[in-house]
Amino acid sequence: AYTDIERGASLHVMPLWRAGDDINFQIHTSVQLVSIEGDRVSQVDGPPAAGMIQMYELENAILPDPKQLWVPPSLPEQDYRLELVAYDAVTHDPLAAPYPLAWFRLGPEPRPPAINRSATWTDGIKLAGFDPPPIYAVSDDQLRLRVVWQAIGPISRNYTTFVHLIDQDGAVVAQHDKQPGDGFFPTSSWTEGQSMAEQYSLSIPVSAVPGEYRILTGWYDPDTDRRLKLSDGSDTLVVATIQVN
């Protein structure tokens, strides 16, 4: 359990641990607040149950681990993630990779898109709109597209989004695939109604011939490469067209 984040106040976190039969040494835990840039802006360390009971003393017992994490008052408005780490109290060797507990946003929701466009994918992902690239471009230009996504229900898996630049023959001439926040904010952690703004960049090849190009987007499962379907049964959406001169 955890409370909401508030600058200049304590964030109360209550992990519960269960000791396994292979734990025979003293363990400390760390609750850490991590920025989207990867900086650990605050953390609190110590043993579960405030050290009154060692985890190796009670096999399969559940130990509470109350911690108060100070949130600096000067934190900038952006996304943050709460992570949990367990490590050997003597050697400081981690028992596993940091485990993400929760995601928080300080500040307002992303600004609305310049163009409202609604499209719904299976598994709870919706396009709310986008800021379009320029209508005209030349070869070797860099196209930038800002897309606002929204969760309309629970999302079961961590999906990757793609943005493709398609030429007149239907060939992909540029693409940008990424997970939200470059992996910081996976789709399975989104809550219903939450909006996420993502930036995509496409490099027009030097060899691009003049003509009309389409920009498509969609989602896929990186474990299987299987694309999510839109509500109309297709798996890609045209969001813009540009003229390359």
Structural class: mainly beta
| Assembly state of the chains shown | single chain
Note the overall shape.
elongated
Number of helices: 0
Output the helix-strand order. EEEEEEEEEEEEEEEEEE
Portion of residues within helices: under 10%
Secondary structure: number of strands: 18
Poorly predicted runs: none
Radius of gyration: 23 Å
Strand content: over 45%
Biggest sheet character? 6 strands, mixed
Walk me through this protein's architecture:
The chain has 245 residues and is mainly β. Helix content is 0%, strand content 48%. The protein has strands at residues 10-13, 16-18, 27-35, 40-46, 62-64, 67-70, 79-88, 99-105, 115-121, 125-131, 136-137, 142-151, 160-166, 172-178, 195-203, 211-221, 226-227, 237-244. Strands 11, 13, 14, 16, 17 and 18 form a six-stranded mixed sheet that branches. Strand 3 (27-35) and strand 4 form a beta hairpin. The protein is elongated. 22% of the residues are buried.
